[in-house]
Design goal:
Chain lengths: 577, 176
């Protein structure tokens, strides 16, 4: 890679009077961006092809003047003399050449931008007060710089379809569309689902789906992200919240092993949306709809809000010290081989490491996580739906997720296991019946949502969801990434690592851990892959920490493991209304 | 840096003070005379008496939502007033107008619109920022309640105070 970069010829390009050097193949618009000048654009997106149809990125361009010997003439400064072209050029579809000159802020260029803006706004409805894009709309942004305060257009605006349901998750307003074709190119080039296109001519051109087809691929909501105006909006986010209220927290998606980088948009402890965050090592600029909309359960009615212990025949709410003391007493009451731990591939490295410490403290032999598979694709969605399978391997929870699970289930059934600690999983989905769980002398469950199993546990410990905690996970390609807290958890729920630390302390005395940073520090001292790292050193884009051998993923068998989220996430498209 | 302010030089009339004292007493005695004859009133007997009829045009009272002459609630829940409100008194939850509705083309309406009148400082920024001519400061000033909840004006109360606004731009009617 590096050698290729070195061998690429570098070209001298003059941008706004200053000479820069760029490698061959750099788009002029990107060269301007690297030189510190942002050229306004609508149709150009750096991850897509350049059709050059919006004309917003017009600039003045010139080539090196050639002398009679076909060599560039050099000026007094030793640089080529530039022959300026008499008309503007688009900068998005042109690569840099040696001796090229670019003017991005000349009077001609500014006049061109004003003209393009006026044309784009001729048929635009100007319904910003009801438009979800308002606040992050490029049409609004460039209007501030190049728009006119009043319209010279006296004729009636062209009327086009509004509020069209383009697919289960995307709503289209054709009047707002500026025909940039980003969504069409995304569907062709990235999603490989060519359903969108333009029909009709002139100012009556509209964006539409192919007759009989809908924009319903698993990447449809990326078209909403890249739409520079409010033509494509998310049906899920529609009218929920204005974007300028949203606090955006850098995080990543925990719905599969890919771990797409995201921004979680929240306001006052409510999550309103997730949008992809650019990370070329993981997800480029995209994420799938399944992961994007899989956050509704965080505000579910079924959230566990308080620790509870079994007293007599029913679970009663107690305070945390009581619940922890009860859980520790139940665990200590059993011999090491009578305890089994079912952890989860959705736990962070810190939590898994503490779980391993707890297992070591108690001398637990039975420990595994629940593997979770679903149909994957070639784009982003991984077949492994556990976000941290590699973390469980690295931290010694299990060599192969699920290998020990049948043995644990058998041991529970036979009564050999007398205490079962379940961390964020549902044991009834592993083939254990309710009666078998009820017969367990102690069933300690740490979870987010209540289930049949938590209703029949002896101790219930409410914990945090992915958007409520800090921590790290290792994605399917061995990249260590960091979760940041976007919202506060409801009720008395506690951070998972705190619960596990307190359990260890109650069983084995103090361990000197006071924060999640302490957990990571102790973990990095014992795990060589993480040596020298800390939560802050992971950074926003993650760090590659382990090589993943290319073992083929186990085949997907839908009957083997029930994927509850697949049902839960069914986006509330308007078909349901 | 200090500035020297020179003392004014007083002439002999000013120095003996008597003319000023006499002049002041004259004004006081004039007021006393008017009071005794019942010509000046310094106190209004509120709430039996009010100045409601003499309110100035620019008086800023309680903010309220208005309807237009078509009967449509002007507000489209753009939440700019919620954003601009300095004491954060406004809370809006947007809703979607069903496609069968008479005003379906407007698409969006405020499902909930609360103004906490304990927080409101009557600054009028909500009226100024509103792109839909939907919220106005009316002349209501006597806003009372026994509980905090009573002091929150919900959408119904706001529309009741606001009433119908004439002479506003009916921009949504120009569309299909």
């Amino acid at each position: 890679m590096n050698e290729q970069l070195i061998n690429v010829p570098m070209f001298n390009v003059q941008i706004d009077g200053v000479w820069h050097r760029f490698p061959r193949g750099t788009r002029v618009i990107e060269a301007c961006a690297q030189a510190g000048t942002f050229v306004p654009r609508y149709c150009y997106h750096k991850k897509l092809s350049s059709p050059g149809n919006c004309r917003m990125c017009l600039i003045e361009m010139g080539m090196a003047r050639l002398g009679p010997d076909r060599k560039p003439e050099l000026g007094v400064d030793g640089m080529p003399v530039i022959n300026w072209m008499p008309r503007p050029q688009i900068s998005c579809a042109q690569d840099v050449t040696d001796g090229m000159g670019v003017r991005t802020n000349s009077p001609l260029v500014e006049e061109c931008r004003r003209g393009v803006m006026e044309f784009l706004l001729i048929n635009h409805p100007l319904d910003c007060p009801i438009c979800d894009q308002a606040g992050e709309c490029e049409l609004q942004e460039f209007s501030v710089e190049y728009g006119s305060a009043s319209s010279r257009f006296l004729e009636n605006k062209v009327k086009k379809p509004k509020n069209v349901e383009l697919g289960p998750r995307v709503t289209l307003d054709d009047e707002r569309c500026i025909l940039c074709s980003r969504c069409i190119r995304f569907c062709q080039e990235i999603a490989k689902d060519d359903v969108l296109g333009f029909v009709d001519r002139g100012s009556h051109t509209v964006l539409t789906a192919h007759p009989g087809k809908r924009l319903e691929n698993n990447y449809s909501l990326n078209t909403v992200d890249i739409c520079p105006v409010g033509a494509l909006t998310s049906s899920d986010f529609r009218f929920k919240m204005r974007v300028w209220f949203l606090k955006e927290t850098k995080s990543f998606c925990t719905s599969c092993a890919t771990g797409c980088n995201t921004l979680i948009g929240t306001r006052e402890d409510v999550i309103y949306r997730q949008t992809p965050r650019e990370n070329d090592a993981v997800n480029s600029s995209w994420m799938c709809d399944y992961g994007r909309l899989n956050f509704g359960y965080i505000e579910s009615e079924r959230r566990l809000l308080e620790p509870r212990i079994l007293s007599g025949e029913k679970l009663v709410p107690v305070d945390w010290p009581t619940a922890m003391a009860q859980a520790a007493a139940q665990l200590k009451h059993c011999q090491g081989l009578e305890v089994a731990i079912i952890a989860s591939g959705r736990m962070t490295n810190e939590e898994l490491w503490l779980t391993a410490q707890l297992a070591k403290t108690l001398g637990v032999g039975w420990i595994d996580i629940v593997p979770r598979f679903g149909p994957g694709d070639d784009i982003l969605l991984s077949e492994d739906r556990n976000p941290n399978s590699n973390g469980t391997r690295l931290l010694g929870i299990t060599a192969e997720p699920g290998a020990q699970l049948p043995a644990i289930v058998e041991a529970v059934k036979s009564g050999a296991v007398r205490a079962l600690l379940v961390l964020g999983e549902d044991p009834t989905k592993l083939g254990l019946s309710l009666e078998q769980l009820k017969e367990l002398p102690s069933l300690i469950m740490m979870d987010i949502l209540s289930s049949v199993a938590t209703e029949n546990a002896t101790v219930v410990l409410p914990s945090f969801a992915f958007a409520e905690k800090r921590g790290s996970m290792i994605n399917g390609e061995g990249r260590l990434q960091r979760l940041n807290r976007a919202v506060r958890a409801p009720g008395q729920a506690r951070d998972d690592w705190e619960i596990l630390r307190d359990l260890i302390q109650a069983c084995a005395g103090t361990n000197g851990i006071g924060s999640v940073e302490d957990v990571f520090r102790q973990m990095s001292e014992t795990v060589p892959h993480l040596a020298g790292l800390s939560l802050s050193k992971i950074g926003d884009l993650g760090v590659h920490v382990m090589e993943v051998n290319e073992s083929p993923a186990p085949p997907y068998t839908p009957a083997s493991h029930d994927i509850e989220e697949e049902m839960e996430h069914q986006p509330p498209g308007r078909t349901s209304k | 840096m200090s500035v020297c302010v020179s003392r004014p030089k007083l002439n002999w009339r000013e120095r003996i003070y008597l003319p000023a004292i006499v002049g002041g007493m004259a004004i006081t005695i004039k007021h006393l005379k008017n009071m005794l004859l019942g010509r000046t009133k310094v106190t209004i007997q509120y709430p039996e008496q009010t100045l409601d009829s003499e309110m100035p045009e620019h008086y800023r009272g309680a903010p309220a939502l208005v309807r237009d002459t078509d009967g449509r609630v002007r507000c489209v829940a753009c939440q700019l007033c919620e954003f601009i409100c300095p004491p954060r008194a406004i809370k809006i939850v947007a809703g979607e107008i069903p496609p069968t509705d008479r005003f379906a083309k407007v698409e969006k309406y405020p499902a909930e619109f609360d103004i906490d009148m304990i927080r409101c400082i009557f600054c009028g920024m909500c009226e100024e920022v509103c792109p839909e001519q939907a919220i106005y400061l009316r002349k209501d000033y006597a806003i009372t309640g026994f509980t905090r909840e009573e002091m929150v004006h919900h959408k119904d109360k706001l529309l009741e105070i606001g009433g119908v606004m004439h002479g506003v731009i009916l921009k949504w009617n120009e569309k299909k």
